[in-house]
Amino acid sequence: VSLIVTEVFDAGLFGENSLEILSHAWEHLLLRDTENNSSNEENGVSSTNSNHLDKSNVTVCQAKVIPYSADVYVVPVECEQLRRTFCLEDKVMQALDIKGVIPQYLDEEPYSTEKVSNLKLKYLSEPSRILQANFNSHEEIKLLLQGKVLNPSYKCIESGNLDAFVMWFDLHLDEMDKISTAPKKESDHGCWEQAIFFVLPQYLEGASSFCKIGDNIEAEFLCRGHFQLKKVKFSNSIPRNNFNQKLTMDPSLIYLLNSYVTGDVISLNLKDVSPVDNASILDISSFPILSLKFLKDSSNTVHVLKTQYQSEIEQLRDAHEISHERLIFKSYEDFCNNKMQCDFLIVDPVEMCGLLKKNLLEDVTVLRMQCLKDSGLVVPGEIEIHAVLVESATLKEHSKIVSDERVDGYKISQIMNAYKCQIHQDIQYSTLPHQNITNPFKLCSIDLNNKSESGTRSFFSNSLKTTEVEVITNGNVTAVIYWFTLKYHSNFLVNTSDPNGLWKQGAIVLDEEVQVSKGEKICLQYSLKNSCFQVGIINH
């Protein structure tokens, strides 16, 4: 073929194996760039014929790829929110009595993605173009597949911690038209996120990540099929190779552990919840941080659920010389079959994405009956669900095709909207473009320590409940955004909508927007079954 149009690009440009795909297309699908007349001679056609144009040395552009090329831009940034995804908070390190951690990222996952316009960050320098990629040159594509080292240098115009490099690109469709994934300062329009390359301690060779105005930042990126950040150096920095004293940890675990700083839960002592001597603990949270902290200062026994973080748990167990008999790994089935009698059942009820953990209420009910003493307690003991009605064009656009005009007039909305999404996660309520239609309100409470038959049965019931809320402004209700308050103890409450916390929020987008007026009362109907929360507007 003479033309290929492709859209195999992600936020990091090459992350969807686009270079491999384009190289294969050049080798097997596209016509050659040069045309010679050897076949004509074989067929008896003479190139010396005065009426025949000699094409043997003429380059004829027969093949074309759209987009034609891309320009890649990178800028160093300071961002506390990004830092907390790879750097443990001091309070967490003190609680676990560790000197530091080395985040272990996989080579096949060299960057994360974020919508930078939703982050509070500071540019430490001006953005610079680090690569021009020509998709109409097979030789250049092969070079980028083999490996090309890029060494951008930046002059600091702001002082701060270098936490990450943000990458975006301009995709040139032809000489005139382009698509840019650059972060927008205005609202959340557009679907493009940007690639985030975290500046890990090992990239700095142990040197400080703080830079001052006038400092030079020298980075080394490798493009071998996709982009990787390999090394970062400051002018006048002093490397300190002290990694042998640090634990290795999955970045998702670092983010999870940092969430315990919210509400100061990391400082919770189980004896403040219930002063039990020689307490036995059953911990089914994703990482048993409260139990590990408790084990350091006691001779108690903890049974923990086998999770993806078992190797990190074992590292900490061995570092604190906790015997294997005191920290026991078991499966959910083991807990149910053994029928142990524990004083505490520790859970982490809410996923970081903002949704209630799958089957949480059912699991708590079963384990409470099978494994807890009559005097035993679930920690946290109570969950409150809070919500707010909002008008948000962004949530509406993320849920369905709002107009065929958005797709150049093609009549596809009726077909595509059969698959529209109602339940959303990873919503950042504090930065989402929206207007509150009501004040935030408490929808319901869930008492995890309610041992009555009615309390137990309610977790499995599909009964619908209703509540009324008052509208505070004229507008259209697009969605219900919700979050949770976790009550560990009287002095330890976690609000998962805290803008300084790490949790995101959930949202339920209505099938159709509901027009409302200030002062009007809205009736909401909600249910909670199998830990799945549903809410909607009725009688309107």
UniProtKB/TrEMBL annotation:
Q: Which UniProt keywords apply?
A: Methyltransferase, S-adenosyl-L-methionine, Transferase
Q: Record keywords: S-adenosyl-L-methionine included?
A: yes
InterPro entries in alphabetical order: Arg_MeTrfase (IPR025799), PRMT_dom (IPR055135), SAM-dependent_MTases_sf (IPR029063)
This protein's GO cellular component annotations are: nucleus
GO MF annotation list: histone methyltransferase activity; protein-arginine N-methyltransferase activity
Q: Which SUPFAM superfamilies match?
A: S-adenosyl-L-methionine-dependent methyltransferases
Any single biological process term in GO:
methylation
- Signal peptide, first to last residue: none
Q: Which domain of life is it from?
A: Eukaryota
Domain Protein arginine N-methyltransferase: from-to ranges: 69-199, 384-531
- This one is known as Protein arginine N-methyltransferase 9
Q: Which organism is it from?
A: Trichonephila clavata
Its lineage reads: Eukaryota, Metazoa, Ecdysozoa, Arthropoda, Chelicerata
